[in-house]
Amino acid sequence: MLKTLRRIIQEVTSAPDFRGVLDTVVRCVSEVLTTEACSVFLLDRRTSEYVLVATNGLNPRAVGKIRIPVDQGLIGLVGEREEPLNIDDASTHHRFLHVPEAEEDQYRAFLGAPMIYHRQVVGVLIVQQREPRRYDEAEEAFLVTLAAQLAAIIAHAEATNGLESLFDTHREKNHDNAWSGLPGAPGIGIGKGVVVSSAVNLFSVPDRQAEDIESEIRLLEAALASGREDFRILSERLYPGLTNEERELFKAYQHMLEASDLGEEIIQLIRQGHWAQGALRRVIESHVRHLENLENDYLRERASDIRALGHRVLSYLQRSERSLPDYAEKTILIGEELTAADLAEVPEGCLVGVISAQGSGSSHLAILARALGIPTVMGVNDAPLHAMQNQNIIVDGYYGQIYINPSDNLREDFQRLADQEKQLTNSLEVLRDQPGQLQDGEPVSLMVNTGLGVDVSLSLAAGAEGVGLYRTEIPFLMRDRFPTGEEQRVIYRQLLASFAPRYVTMRTLDIGGDKSLPYFPVHEANPFLGWRGIRISLDHPDIFLTQVRAMMRASRGYQNLRIMLPMITDVSEVDESIRLLNKAYSEVVESYPDVIMPKIGVMIEVPAAVWQARAIAKRVDFLSVGSNDLTQYMLAVDRNNARVASLFDSLHPAVLRALLHVADAGHQEGKHVSICGELAGDPVAVLLLIAMSFDSLSMSASSLSRIKWVIRHFTRKQVCQLLQEVLQMESPIMIRCRMELALEEAGLGELVRAGKRK
C-alpha cells in the first residue's frame, strides 16, 4: 500500500495543472480500491458549500455544478465529524441527501475521508460502490492516508487562487483576486500597478575575446563611474528619510562599484582576454553563487543586491539609455527582484506600495521600505506580476496580502483602515516628549531593542530611556570572518556614546539556532536545542573574552554599559561566565584604570532558568526575560513553522505564570528585572507586565509611542485587577479577549484594531 501511495503522489505531482491533479486522484483511487466511483468535493469558504470538482463514476456533467451545504448530506457529515464515515448503505442513512444531477442512485456503499490542513477541513474524498458493503480497515486507512497527503496540495492551491476556476465555472465571480506573500513593511497601500523590469539580462551575455583590452577597460571604468553617480544622486534624494543603516547601504553600493572592489576583479579577467561584458558576468555570477550557497539568511539576501549592480553596470556597457516607466500618481511598484534603487527612482510622493516576487523581510528592499514607511509585500512568486500593470491594487503589508482589481466594498474597507491608521499615527506624535507613566503618575521605564544599524535619533525621539537589548551578533553576521576586538570596540563605542548617559544593555554573542555564521557553521538536527548562545561562548572563551574586553574598553568615559548573558540554563554557566568577565576586566583595567566593572545580567529564556531565577539573581545585577524564546520553549512551538505557528502565544497562562515567577524571584533578591521581545511592545500585554512589576520594558522604537499611549490611560490599581482576572483564566484566547476589552473600555479601541491588522 505504501508503494501504491508513493506512485499516486508521484503521478499527482507530475500533473500539468491542478485540474490534472484531481483527475489523477479519482482515477488512481478507483483503480487501487477496485471501486466503482471516486469523487473529490472541495470546500468553497465564501459560500460554505462543498463543490464537486472531480469524479470517476458520478455524472461528469455535474462537476462544478453540485454544491452541498456544509451542514447537509453525508459529505457535510464527514466535514463536521472531521473523521472517516464508512457505511454499507448510504441511502438508508438519515443524513443522505438525494442530488439528481449526480446520478448516484445505483451506489450503496459509501466511504468518505476529510482532507484537513492546519486544523481546517479543505474538502472530502469519497469512494462508492453499487453492492452494499463496508469497506475494510485497510481500504479505509488507505483513503485516510491519501486524503492527508492531498490536503497540503489543496491548501497550496487555495492559497494561490488555484481553486478559482473550479469554484467559479458555473457561478459569476463576485470576490476579490487575492494573492499571498510575506510581510515586508507594515501599512496599507492603494494605487495603480507599475511593473519594472530590467531591459538587459546580464546572465545571457556570451563569452567573447576582447579585441582591444585597454578599450574594454576604459568602457568598464566609465560604466562603473556612471553607476556610482546613480547611487550618489539617489542617496541624496532619499537622505532625509533614511536611517544610518540605509545611508550605509547606498555607500556600500558605491563602494562595490569602485575600481578597487568589483572593478579590480573584472579588470583582471579583461586582461586575461575577456571582453568587458563577459568579464562582468563572470564576476557577478561568482559572487551571487557564493552568497546563495551560504546558510545565513541575511547574507543570502545580498545576492539580489549584487545582481542589481551587475545589471546596472551592463546597461551602461551596452550604452543603453535607462528608460524609466510611467509612474502613476499613486504607484504600487512591482517587480521580480526590486532593489533600493528602483524605489529611489519613483518621483517623490508617488510611491504608496511595493510588491516584489523575490526576497523576504530581511532583504535590503524591505529594510528600506520600512524606513520610508512604504507598505511592502515580498515573496509573491506565484502572482502574475506582468498582468498587474495599470491595475488597481491594494497592498496589505501587515498580513503580506495583495488584492488585484478589488471590489468597491473591499477598496472602501481598506481605505477606511488606512485613514484610521494615519489618524492614529498622527495622534501618537504628541506623546514623543511625554514621560512613560501610568495615569496616576507612576513612572514606567521604556527601553529600545536595537541591532542592525540602530537609528539612534529615532529611538531617542520616541522617548527611549536607554537600550534594553543590543544584539551584538549582527556585526558578526555581516562579515566573512570574526570581527577584531578593535572593530567591535568602535561599533560598541558609537552606540554607548549616542545613548550616554542612558544605559545600554549588550547581549554577548548569541549565535546558533536560526543565526549561524557563514565562517563558523554549526550543523545540527535540532539547532534550537543545541549548541547556541552562552554554550558556544563558554566553549570558545577566546571569542567571548575578545568581545567583552571590547565592550569594556568601549565604555571608557561613559560607564553606561551593561552586559547580558544569553541562553543560560544552569547556575554553573553563570559562575563560569562571571569568572571570565572578571578576568577580562582585570586585563582591561591594567591599561585603562578608569574603566569600571559593568553591571552583569542574565537573559531568562528557557524554563530551566525560570525555575532557577532566584539562584541566578543572587549571582548577577539584573535579570531580563526574552519573551520570544521563552514562549517558544515553554510551549514547545517553533513560531517559524507554519504548521504550529498558530499555537505560539505569549499570553498563554503557563507563560504568564512563568513571567510572574521571574519578576518575583528577581525582586526577592533586590535585583532589577526587565523584559524584552515582542511581548513588551504588545499593547494588549503591556498592562499585565506592568502589574507584574517589571522594572523596565524594552521594545522596537516604532512601538514606544503606542505603549506610552496605552499605559497613560490606566492606574496601578486597574492593571493589578486585570492581572488577577486573567490569572484565573485557562485559555490565551480568553486572556487576549479580556485585555482587548479593557483597551476598548478605556477608549483605545482603534489601537486594538490596528494591532489585529498587524
Structure description:
This protein has 758 residues and is of the alpha/beta class. It is 45% helix and 16% strand. The protein has 28 helices and 22 strands. The strands form 3 sheets. The protein has an 8-stranded mixed β-sheet. β5 and β6 form a beta hairpin. The longest helix is centred in the first third of the chain and has 26 residues. It starts with a helix and ends with a helix.
Q: SSE layout and pairings?
A:
Layout: H1 2-13, H2 18-32, E1 37-44, E2 49-56, E3 67-69, H3 73-81, E4 85-87, E5 109-117, E6 120-129, H4 137-159, H5 164-168, E7 177-180, E8 182-185, E9 188-195, H6 213-238, H7 244-256, H8 262-271, H9 276-292, H10 297-317, E10 331-335, H11 340-344, E11 351-356, H12 364-372, E12 376-378, E13 392-396, E14 401-404, H13 408-428, E15 445-450, H14 456-461, E16 467-471, H15 473-477, H16 485-499, E17 504-507, H17 534-539, H18 541-554, E18 561-565, H19 571-591, E19 599-604, H20 607-611, H21 613-617, E20 622-626, H22 627-635, H23 653-668, E21 672-676, H24 683-691, E22 696-699, H25 704-711, H26 716-726, H27 732-745, H28 749-757
Parallel strand pairs: 9-10, 10-11, 11-12, 15-16, 15-22, 16-17, 17-18, 18-19, 19-20, 20-21, 21-22
Antiparallel strand pairs: 1-2, 1-6, 2-3, 4-5, 5-6, 7-14, 8-12, 9-13, 13-14
